[in-house]
Every structure is written in C-alpha cells, then in structure tokens.
Amino acid sequence: MTVNAAPRENRTPYTLDTLLDVAVSVFTERGYDGTSFQHLSLASGLSKSSIYHHIESKEQLLRLGLERALEPLMATISEPRALEGPAIGRLEYLIRRNLEILAERLPYVTLLLNVHGNTETERWALEQRRSYNRAVAAVVQDAIDEGDIRADVDAKTTARLVFGMINSVREWYRPERNVTPEALTAQIHSLLLDGIRTR
Amino acid sequence: MTVNAAPRENRTPYTLDTLLDVAVSVFTERGYDGTSFQHLSLASGLSKSSIYHHIESKEQLLRLGLERALEPLMATISEPRALEGPAIGRLEYLIRRNLEILAERLPYVTLLLNVHGNTETERWALEQRRSYNRAVAAVVQDAIDEGDIRADVDAKTTARLVFGMINSVREWYRPERNVTPEALTAQIHSLLLDGIRTR
User: Fold this and answer.
1) Do B83 and B33 have their domain in common?
2) Mean pLDDT, all residues of chain A
3) What CATH number should be reported for the domain holding residue B9?
4) How many structural domains compose chain A?
5) What average pLDDT does range A135-161 have in this prediction?
6) ipTM here
7) DSSP for B150-164, written as a single string
C-alpha cells in the first residue's frame, strides 16, 4: 500500500484486472453464453457504462481471460526444455509446467477448459488448445520411438489421458486448502509414469 | 416399427425420452441456468405448452437427466463385485463399470459432471457424486492397506486422479469414432495401474 492509497472506507477503484477476475468467475459459473452485461454489472457492483469504460464487449473480456491461460501454456511448448534432450524428459517438463500454470491461474485455465466454440474468440482458443495438444502428442510419440513410453497405446490417446488427469485437478484442487503445487505435481507425475500399483 | 406406425412424412411424435435427450444437450451447451423454456422450445420444435404436457418444470428435466447417469453409477458401488474379494480387483471393476457407463450414457454423464449446485436437484446430484467418490476412495484405501496400491499418495487424491482421468474421456471420446469402449477401458486400466513408462 502506498502513502497515497485511498482510505479504507472508500471502495477499491476497479481496474481492468479486478473486472476481469469477476467476469471470469461469472463466465465459469453461468457459462459465457448465459452471461449478460446485467450479470457482470450485478457481480462487479459496476454500472454497465462503467464496465464499458474498461472494455468494448463481453467477448473482449472472454479473450483477455483466455489469454491469461493460453499465453503461459503456449509459451511452454517452445521453451528449450520442451525442445531439447530425451523426449521423456521433455514430457516430464511439460507435465510439471502445465500443473504449475493450472495452480497459479486456476480460474483462467478453468475458463479455457470449458470453452465450447460458439464465437470467434472461442474458436481461436480451441485452435490454440489443439496446437498445444498436437505438440504434446508429438513429444509422447518421440518418447515412444525412443523406447521410454509404452507403445501399446497410441500417442494421441496417451497424451489425452495424461492431460485429462492433470486438467481434472481444476475440479477439486485449491492451493490454499490442499497440498502445495509442487507436492501435487510430484504425486501426479509419479502416478502417471509408474502407475498406482505397487511392484 | 409396428404395423400401425405413423407414415414417415409425419413428424415423429415426441416422447419424454426424446425431449429429455434434447434438453440434456441444451443444458450442456448453454448451462442449466442459461437455458430457458424458450431455448428448449427452439431446440425441440415443441411449443412451451407441449413441453409442459411432458414435464412440470425445467428442474424436473434436469433431475431425469441426472438420474440416467446416477442410477447406474450408484448401483455399481453396491454390486457384489464391488464389495467382495481383494480391493484391487474391486477397484478394477469400478473403473471398468464407470467407463462402460460413460460410453453408454455420454450426454447424461457429461451433464452430471458439469453440475454446479445452485438448485436442490443439483445439490442432490453433488451429494450422490460425493457418496460415490467416498465409496471409491474407501476401496483405494483398502487396496493400499492390502499392499496392492502404493501408499505414498493418499487414497482420496489417488481416487480423484484416477476418476479424473476416466471422466476426462467425455471431452473427446465418441464411441462411433474412436476405439470401442472395451479397448479404451483396457488402455486406461493398464495406464493407470502400470503407468505410461516402459520397464
């Protein structure tokens, strides 16, 4: 807090960031199609014209929310550690980074994973997700070719199931209530690679 | 088709079943809160009064839809094969039955897995899901105690992750387009128990 911060009894001034947080939670609760400016106004306590002061359209809010999940996710697949060395190590890196981003940006990743595809922005987000999935499936295929991942399930199915388990975490994981992101990552990583059975 | 079936050029008469199929797909597309009778009327081609001929409320349709997923799911946990014998075998049975139900009743299970909990019916469905999850976690705990499942991840987390992977299948699996439910079940079962890594 700075010396010139507003007195506590005043309402915290709304920034685009706070509006976006509210909007993302309403989108997830009601669905994007089911959310009107009226709902955003009620949830934020802002008038419609104050909302329009920050953004041009509901779809712009959706895009900004989706970017907060997609930008770090898409960045990981072109990082050196996702591109260099044995594929099994690259896959482990992608799994870890995906879980970190999920834990850090839970509401945004949840929004992304619920996208249907009715608007241009949703179709763009789905296309980004498909690129991400293709990149991951290619790494799984490399790991199969290098003999480190079993070959009896095809790469695309394995990639879907691995990231299906990871992404399911959004439904119950709350970093403030459960284990740390690092501990959860280690557990998931170990279950995925070696299975749940003792040996 | 019976001898007295209506001529083909006539509209197929709506039954509660066909209305329910339409409603479940609209609920999943728009969210339950975001679905009005107007949407149900547009999607089914029925007037609102024709819809009221079949059901009393939107919530009744939701309940009927959720029951189609919950009834077979809840039945599995009290079947003899889920109650008798080594816990690892009981867990394998629960995994297989869950996947079969998912494949057979994909739209209904998808509806169930998207439930938020704003109405009495949704809270009831969430409570049923919690009972199911508790039953599964208890079987995982038994398998840990019997030494067949690793003890380094707690039973509740393992159960959530296992069923997280299974349930993620709803996002991409289409029985008519992908492998058979039996083949998919075998793949998931094997990945979950033994991991994706070669040994």
Assistant:
1) no
2) 89
3) 1.10.10.60
4) 2
5) 94
6) 0.85
7) -SSS-HHHHHHHHHH
* Residue B31 sits in the same domain as residue B122: no
* 8 A C-beta contact, residue B66 and residue B125: yes
Domain match, A99 and A135 both: yes
Q: What are phi and psi of A43, to 5 degrees?
A: -70, -35
Give the number of beta-carbon pairs within 8 Å between A and B: 119
Residue of B nearest to A118 (CA): B29
- A92-99 contact pairs (CB < 8 A, 24+): A92/A189, A92/A193, A94/A136, A94/A139, A95/A162, A95/A166, A95/A185, A95/A188, A95/A189, A95/A192, A96/A185, A96/A189, A98/A73, A98/A163, A98/A166, A99/A166, A99/A169, A99/A181, A99/A184, A99/A185, A99/A188
Rounded to whole angstroms, how far apart are CA atoms A123 and A120? 5
Looking at the structure, tell me whether residues B84 and B150 fall in a common domain.
yes
Domain containing residue A173: 65-194
Element (H, E) at A39: helix A37-44
pLDDT of residue A192: 94
Task: Report the pLDDT value the prediction gives residue A101, as an integer from 0 to 100.
Answer: 94
The secondary structure of residue A96, as a DSSP letter, is H
pLDDT, residue A12, reads 60
Same domain, B2 and B51: yes
Q: Are residues A23 and A90 in the same domain?
A: no
A148 & A87 share domain:
yes
| Contacting residues of A for B196, CB less than 8 Å apart | 149-150, 153, 158, 162, 192-193
Of the candidates B172, B190, B196, which has its C-beta nearest A192's C-beta?
B196
Q: Are residues B47 and B116 in the same domain?
A: no
Rg (alpha carbons) of chain A, rounded to whole number: 20
User: pLDDT 10s digit of each residue in chain B, 199 long?
Assistant: 344 444 433 456 678 899 999 999 999 888 888 788 999 999 999 999 999 989 999 999 999 999 999 999 999 999 999 999 999 999 999 999 999 999 999 999 999 998 877 799 999 999 999 999 999 999 999 999 999 999 999 999 999 999 999 999 998 998 888 888 889 999 999 999 999 888 7
Whether B73 has its CB under 8 Å from any CB of chain A: the answer is: no
Give the rounded distance of the alpha carbon of B50 from its chain centre: 28
